[in-house]
Fold this protein.
Amino acid sequence: MSLTMDPAERQIRTYNCKCCDVPVNWTWNFVSRDGSTHAAYYANSYHHIGQPHETWIDVILGTWGQSQFDDHVTFGCRVGPTTNSAEPGATLVQACLDGSGGPMHGTLLSREAALTHPRLQDFWSVVDFVLANDPTVNAHLYGPASVRGHEVQRGIPWPYPEGVFPQHLGMIVQRTIMAGTEPVRVVTHWADGDWTVADGVNDPNGNAGIACVEHLLAADETFTTLASMPPGTQAFRSNPGEPWTFEAHTYDE
């Protein structure tokens, strides 16, 4: 599945928040899958006074190119710091909490309905795509103006100075780990320099976000030993407290 969007079609406007009168950036666009319209998203990026950056995203899934919206469903999520991490994490919420729902949105899913909906993974795939490819959303959550005060960087050249992870190195981390419901069991240093961190139990596809390595180090001191892993290597363990094992990693398309 290949997701794309046309940057020229992306819409953006700014309005003032009703509760604190600070600017809110609103963006939307269509997302295509394998060349056909797959979804539409609406993202509102807030920075309330005295609070961290957050973005609320609604995604409409359904059939496109017709006047009827009978099969349209809308999911909603909040992306921002969570209880267990200052790094952005995504949490399902009621769709269109701002009252923006219209006929095109179809069924507005509650959090409870979304959790069991068959298109939940499609929704998370679109959210991950938006976080990486909408420049307004990405800069708001991960850029230097964010609450963390630094820019998370991916693909920093290896080996690292003094064999230590760079402080601002960004990794793709499974949401179960971000939420603290599962530990780290599989860590991959890809040949291109990127890192992925998984729980080794649940399917990570469409269920991950970007996190800073310093938060992984704070949660698990054994993670420091993985800085010496060269690109093209994968580390495994069954559970926390057990030693890491290593093997060469290859990607099969």
The chain has a mean pLDDT of 87. The chain has five helices and 14 strands. The first helix runs from residue 111 to 115. The helical segments are 111-115, 120-133, 135-142, 175-178, 213-219.
